[in-house]
Design a protein that fits this description.
The chain is mainly alpha-helical and 199 residues long. Helices cover 68% and strands 0% of the residues. The chain has one domain.
Length: 199
């Protein structure tokens, strides 16, 4: 399922149309693969299956969820341009908005904790808060909210239950993502990566 998800996501990512031409990140497919697989490998099968259905359904309808994700980010990063395109985006029900907000809050809290424990990640990652958004930089909060806004109600509900279960167990769900990521970049663990990038 992970490879099936990645294949559709990559196709959508490469077909996002930017008004300023092809974005540099669209040529960095290895980085995209590492980022996406690091994330997806932490998900339970039920969540993967629901999200795969979302992607397959969007593909059947000829709709690019990656384009929608980046468009929704513009509400914070490029508000004037967002006003010109928002009418073309799918409507969000109040229930979906509530789940997006709830999940964004959990994921942002996890990210803040991880950045506190591993400052080298903060130096190499996005700014955390939407208050730090600009035309040049998109925060983790805004990126996350944009992505979650493309998920179906079913996927959001499964994801929310999964995250709350981790919270109850005292587990930071972002840690496993970063562990996967640093291993793909050649480090044995987050601790080893922190030691390597201490300077």
């Amino acid at each position: 399922m992970i490879e099936a998800i990645y294949a559709i996501e990559l196709d959508m990512f490469e077909n996002v149309h930017n008004s300023n031409g092809r974005a540099l990140c669209q040529s960095e497919t290895n980085t995209f693969r590492i980022n996406r697989l690091s994330y997806l490998q932490t998900w339970p099968d039920e969540l993967l299956a629901s999200y795969l259905y979302d992607l397959e359904n969007a593909k059947t309808l000829g709709f690019n969820l990656m384009s929608e994700k980046y468009a929704r980010m513009m509400e914070s990063t490029h508000p004037e341009n967002y006003e010109e395109i928002k009418e073309f985006l799918p409507d969000m029900t109040d229930e979906r908005k509530q789940l997006v907000n709830e999940l964004t809050g959990i994921l942002l809290d996890w990210e803040k904790e991880i950045f506190g424990r591993y400052p080298f990640l903060a130096r190499r990652g996005r700014p955390l808060s939407a208050q730090q958004d600009s035309a040049a930089f998109t925060s983790f909060e805004t990126y996350t909210r944009g992505e979650l806004s493309t998920y179906s109600l079913n996927t959001l509900d499964i994801y929310c239950n999964y995250c709350h279960a981790l919270v109850r167990q005292g587990i930071n769900g972002s840690e496993a993502i970063y562990e996967n990521m640093v291993r793909m970049y050649g480090c044995a663990s987050l601790k080893e990566a922190a030691d390597r990038y201490r300077a």
